[in-house]
Amino acid sequence: MTNPRSLFLRTLKGEASSPPPIWFMRQAGRYLPEYRATRAEAGSFLNLCYDPEKAAEVTFQPIRRYGLDAAILFADILLIPQALGQDVAFEKGEGPKLSPPMDEPTLESLSMARLHEALAPIYETVRLVRAGLPDDVALIGFAGAPWTVATYMLAGGSMKDPAALRQVYYERPAFLRRLIDLLVDATSEYLIRQVEAGAEAIQLFDTWAGGLPEDVLQIVSVEPAARIAERVKGAAPDIPVILFPKGVGPALPKYAGLEVCDAVGIDFATPWEWAREAVSPLATVQGGLDPLLVVSGGEEMLAAARRLKSVFEGAPYVFNLGHGFTPETPPENVTELIAAVRES
Amino acid sequence: MTNPRSLFLRTLKGEASSPPPIWFMRQAGRYLPEYRATRAEAGSFLNLCYDPEKAAEVTFQPIRRYGLDAAILFADILLIPQALGQDVAFEKGEGPKLSPPMDEPTLESLSMARLHEALAPIYETVRLVRAGLPDDVALIGFAGAPWTVATYMLAGGSMKDPAALRQVYYERPAFLRRLIDLLVDATSEYLIRQVEAGAEAIQLFDTWAGGLPEDVLQIVSVEPAARIAERVKGAAPDIPVILFPKGVGPALPKYAGLEVCDAVGIDFATPWEWAREAVSPLATVQGGLDPLLVVSGGEEMLAAARRLKSVFEGAPYVFNLGHGFTPETPPENVTELIAAVRES
After folding, report:
1. pTM of the predicted structure, to 2 decimals
2. Residues in chain A within 8 Å Cβ distance of B164
3. Tell me: the pLDDT tens digits for A132-156?
4. I need a surface site. Which of A91, B249, B270, B331 has the fewest CB within 10 A?
């Protein structure tokens, strides 16, 4: 499965290289005019996700423009609750609405029965992308991690403080465990199909893992990530797994130390030297640059990028952001950033 | 200034004791019926803050009910922007509104000239509380840290993601530094007066320090905290200083390692064993218990409290929460919690 011509995949497997491979979270997105054009043709965000030709097109766009080392499937983490039977809508300028919010009876009504039928267009996107990418550009499949997806399902949308939902664990632990278990099952199946369709690495985004006490984090985030990675590797032993639990700080080594974890993403608030000492001995490190530095650009961005690269010199490291690009990012700043990382 | 009869102050100065001293963030607050009664008499939250008799009364209430080792001045972190000349209002159920939001011309209009006149009622509260407290109960003065206060000043109120204001630093560093410098000055003066009025330790709350890249954190949070602590210790060399930068995770040792830092608070997401290893050698540790565990109570709360106490056994440690009590906290759970910590 791994492609020896791909610098990105070799780095995930533990090879240090200089310059490091580069890709960016949310590299396909609203900051690119070509994305906005395709998005407008699709009519809605969900239409774009479920249209394999158009989703493949926006996946290719940043590869064409920037010559990055990896492409990441264009999709959304909330396709899973939708495929399980919860209604998901994206209202303009308002964020997602999931209805009804998850409770015990609603959870009982969800089902894996139509999962792959609902997600078939996504698998088709993966096939189209892999067929259209240069050989040395790796394709990353992804999914939201169970806790992060569960916060949207429980709250019916975005929350100001998703960590407050740990109260659900304190008050209804069996209910929360059932929801997490269902998401572990669905996410594992989803990622295995992505790999079968051509994804060469997978990343699990736990965007709302921050702010959880360590024992809750273990149960709702670390263990589910381990179970999903084990399931995916059970089906495809060579597939590298990247875990990105945002905001967990000193708990990062719990993820990096998992047998099934090949790489961990670090968010922009993670101190780089600390990560080099505490995380690099356990797994490949990916990311860390503040995406807002790429909005302002200039010497401050370039100096930070060079320092980030130098901190991880000699360790297996994938250059990336500490969170996705924001829509305000000037695309030309990205060009400058890549040149600074790739200059010798 | 330090009182040798106070277990709390001895612990801040590095003495380990078992059981540890106990107080709680937001121990005076809406979860207590006696607080709600005094608050209703005052008419508004700001009236309560500026009424020395009533503010002293609510400061005493949790001491009377629970026999805690320390009282903390009842006040609000937004009294400082108000004393500097920015309008502050608390709308029912909406959070604070500050107007106009801070920009360069508004910043120029702020002034230290009426600071102590505006804050005189707070100093009077400190005097009343110190005069009325038992000798072995310490009185903690406090203020919001410059970055946290600045987020409210810049946004005109609460934000979903205060760390996004780092963009102000990237785009207008001189403006942000001027605002932080003004807050360092005002906060230092405010805390020195609290100490002169009878506060025996001070705590700086940096509630929104989380999510900042390390170099930004250094400039807007670590250095301002150090400067304020130095100024206060310049006026009162023995005064212990507690820093509580919430959400900073692996950056905690940067605060704990400051010469002027006696203790650091840990939030509820900080892994306890990690803090014992990385922070305890540098400073007294305070806090860590998830306040939501005290809402649900019972054996899960008690087991967590016993484990927390045991992790820090042998190190200087102050028992406390990892964030303030929420209004839903049943007061009887607090009684049980204290008994569990104090049992031998």
Report:
1. 0.96
2. 292
3. 999 999 999 999 999 999 999 999 9
4. A91
